Amino acid sequence: MRKIRKLTYIIAVGFSICAGLAPAQNLSVGIEALQAEDYESALDELKPLAENGDAIAQYLLGQMYFAGDGVKINYEKALSMYTYSAEQGHALAQNSLGYMYGEGIGVPVDNITSFKWHMLAASNGYAEGQFNIGLAYELGLGVEIDFVEALKWYKLAADQGSVKAQINLGYLHAYGAGISQNYPEAFKWYRLAAQQGDDLAQSSLAAMYANGFGVELSLVNAHMWMDISGKNGYEEAEELIDVIQEMMTFWEIISARSKARICIESDYQKCG
Q1: What is the pTM assigned to this prediction?
Q2: Cα 223 from chain centroid?
Q3: Taking the CA of residue 189 as centre, how many other CA atoms within 13 Å lie in the half-sphere pointing to its CB?
């Protein structure tokens, strides 16, 4: 969780710069303090900037109050800081507001308001916001179910590398959820997510190889991807590997294990 928060602090600056907000020297000092987990110094630097209307500082201060980094968790203050920042066009703050309203954190659940803020973040090009809009259209959260719109927003997020969006695209195409079933397209998206190390996508890819859905049937590749998914935490992998192995020869199993090792060592670039 800590690594994710550090990354969020870093990318907050990039989105604000894109919005035309240049970080001041004190802001850079505040961000460096956050990255070093020196929250007292970060608060000293960011609070005056936030009070003076700096959108990045407001967002980061909101993050501190939301997570309890150097301060007591205070969802009311987090919501206030996010709102100030979001109203200036900060995409991460907009997405954070969407999350709070959607989950009912510090406020009553309000899917319509959640959708509004996620849409603003998505329209600003933020992949997480685009994923959330895709999910809203798929599940009917604050908007009527519309699978065409869901696909559109998922694809925008997936093209930016969103693993969650790639998995959901794979699922929709594999099961024909609201759209025509398309195994080759499902395979494509599952593979992209699998190559980013996602265990669910890797297990789904294994299932497609095992059944010949969207790709030539290959028990060796099915075993390889299920083995990899297990190493990445997929809990049902061991049981499913046993099922796959019952249909394989000894040498096929040896080959699959070797391919899994090569695939992992190559950071999923040499996976057959």
Answers
A1: 0.87
A2: 26
A3: 25
